[in-house]
Specification:
The chain has a two-stranded antiparallel ribbon with strand order 1-2. By secondary structure, the chain is mainly alpha-helical. It folds into two domains: about 45 residues, Orthogonal Bundle (Arc Repressor Mutant, subunit A); about 150 residues, Tetracycline Repressor, domain 2 (Orthogonal Bundle). The longest helix is centred in the middle third of the chain and has 25 residues. The chain has twelve helices and two strands, in the order αααααααααβααβα. The relative contact order is 0.10.
């Protein structure tokens, strides 16, 4: 007797080409174009032209999809070990730049990296080795390495989120800031008034690339001081 309620072993049209990579690629396209809230298993299945249940053979739930997206996006930032040919400070900066570029390429995924534990864990696994390697060469202890990487990654995350919210290469803070500072009562925040007045509009124009490099320079200098002190 044939059970007509069951599907045959043959996949439906479209499902024979389904794979984990194809699902994640489609999911990333949805997130990039429409944001993380647009990503559902039903929407993903519709985009791929398959039955929603067929997705679960490759990725068991949405959390697995998000973790897979983190893997897909950030696996490319892994770097080969340059050895001692490159100073540890530059190795650290190169790793930070690569991570920032991955976040910039997919800004709608940036916040998800911060808020989803499975995504964060996946990112940690595929991205932190260059940081750990550089800081180990700097002479930091295991505890210092973990805490320093956490601080550095927090800086990159915060910077990337601010950058993604503006969606431009520069952030023109100068006109509003100058007006507010010039309107302060006499004697209020005298150092702020002096510095802003000396810089003027051109000096206050904020460039994200320059700002990121300045942040890396400050952090790297502090790490070097920490390493020298303990040594």
């Amino acid at each position: 007797m044939v059970n007509v309620g069951k599907r045959s072993g043959r996949p439906r049209a479209g499902e024979e080409r389904l794979s984990r990579e194809a699902i994640l690629t489609a999911a990333l396209r949805i997130v990039d174009d429409e944001g993380i809230d647009a990503l559902t298993m039903r929407r993903l299945a519709s985009t791929l032209g398959v039955n929603p249940m067929s997705l679960y053979h490759h990725l068991p739930n949405k959390a697995a999809v998000l973790g897979g997206l983190a893997e897909l996006v950030f696996a490319g930032v892994e770097q080969t070990d340059p050895g001692d040919a490159v100073p540890w400070q530059e190795q650290l900066k190169q790793a930070a730049r690569a991570y920032r570029n991955a976040l910039r390429a997919h800004p709608n995924l940036a916040l998800q990296v911060l808020s989803d534990t499975s995504a964060v864990s996946e990112v940690v696994v595929v991205t932190v080795e260059p940081y750990y390697r550089a800081l180990d060469r700097a002479g930091l202890s295991p505890r210092q390495i973990v805490e320093t990487v956490n601080t550095l990654v927090d800086f990159i995350h915060g910077f990337a989120l601010g950058e993604a919210s503006v969606r431009s290469e520069t952030f023109d803070l100068a006109p509003d800031l100058l007006a507010r500072v010039q309107g302060l009562p006499a004697g209020k925040a005298p150092t702020l008034v002096r510095v802003v007045s000396e810089l003027g509009p051109e000096g206050l124009a904020y460039d994200f690339d320059s700002g990121f490099e300045s942040g890396l320079t400050v952090l790297t200098a502090g790490i070097a001081t920490l390493a020298d002190r303990d040594r």
